[in-house]
Amino acid sequence: MPSFNSVAVIGAGAWGTALAGVAVRAGRDVVLYARSAESATRMTSSRQNPRLPGTQLAANLEITNEIAQAARAEIILIATPAQHLREAMTALAPHLKKATPVVACAKGIEHGTHKFMTEVIAATAPDATPAILSGPSFADDVARGLPTAVTLAAQDEGLARALVQALGSSTFRPYHSTDIRGVEIGGAAKNVLAIAAGIAVGRKLGASAQAALTTRGFSELARLGLACGARTETLVGLSGLGDLILSCSSLQSRNFALGIALGRGAPPPKGKLAEGVFTAPVLIELAASQNIDMPVSQAVAAILGGAITIDAAIEGLLTRPFKAEG
Ligand SMILES: NC(=O)C1=CN([C@@H]2O[C@H](COP(=O)(O)OP(=O)(O)OC[C@H]3O[C@@H](n4cnc5c(N)ncnc54)[C@H](OP(=O)(O)O)[C@@H]3O)[C@@H](O)[C@H]2O)C=CC1
Ligand SMILES: O=C(CO)COP(=O)(O)O
Residue ranges of the Glycerol-3-phosphate dehydrogenase NAD-dependent N-terminal domain (predicted)? Predict the structure, then answer.
């Protein structure tokens, strides 16, 4: 099993900054790459990141604006928004050493190409080794050192185990897996379903409706996952069901919070990344291409696209023909 000592995190947002802290706590040499030179300089001197307020950056965390410096690390964690992954990888790829593990930490599916995060990595850096980290984990909780567990998948089990060894600690517990596709489908779909759960809460449909919607949401996530080759144990694990439960029930979730605002007819929270907005249209295109019925995700995409009102979407879901559970 390889052993890794250095980690670079690309993307100095909330999640990238929290993950840099994780790697520092695990005892690695860590560099955090910010695409803005000004932000890198400011974070270096203030030891604060406005995208993750209240977190003191570790004294031994290096912050850089030099992509070539970041690329020298033995492990790369890439934590930009999903739709920015290609751009970030395109800048990084020419500097990477052969076979460097590049761990996708974003949750989404690329517009236009329908590519999952590790597929974007493979397309932009064919000599790198893609992996994925996903699960129920708010950046703020992770940064505060609260206990968190996630799934970390690579095609090669030995590599997945080595990445877990390099990043894991008593408060950040990654479970290794080789089911890359299962992990990335769960992370992408749960954001769309969290918007649906938020809408139900915002419309005051009650706790029973919230539980029903979350469960039926899981059912369609699992249907798509299985059609795309994911394994059941992954779909019911941390990166699937685990993250869905968290995001469909916690006000900390930006996707859930957006749904609540939509349900109330209030303006969406400003300046907050809600990946489900970008994932919804791609997710339903992907589902259609696989002949998979995803009524909840379809309703979210239609609401976000302005094709249907919230009340009409709710009515549509509630008047679907009765059927066997599954
Ligand atoms: N926040 C969370 O709790 C969690 C988030 N995630 C996932 O992580 C991903 C990022 O989310 P989050 O960190 O919260 O988002 P933020 O909005 O906090 O930050 C995104 C960061 O990405 C940077 N960025 C954008 N494009 C590039 C690029 N081409 N190269 C380098 N950096 C780039 C932005 O830079 P700039 O500041 O210059 O705009 C910004 O710092 C999402 O897919 C999200 O679903 C996963 C688990 C938990
Ligand atoms: O992915 C997350 C928790 O696992 C973060 O959720 P939000 O992006 O909805 O805030």
Answer: 7-158
Catalytic residue, chosen from 115, 190, 204, 270, is: 190
Q: Which domains does the chain have, with CATH numbers?
A: 6-178 (3.40.50.720), 182-319 (1.10.1040.10)
Q: What is the pTM of this model?
A: 0.98
Segment 2-20, tens digit of pLDDT: 899 999 999 999 999 999 9
190 as an active site residue: the answer is yes
H or E, element range at 101: strand 101-104
Ligand 2 mean position to 307 CA, how many Å? Answer: 26
Other C-beta atoms lying within 10 Å of the C-beta of residue 12: 26
Would you say the CB of residue 194 lies under 6 angstroms from ligand 2?
A: yes
Whole-number Å distance, alpha carbon 102 to ligand 2 midpoint, is 21
The pair of structure tokens assigned to 228 is: 């795309």
SS3 234: helix
For residues 116 and 131, is the Cβ–Cβ distance under 8 A? no
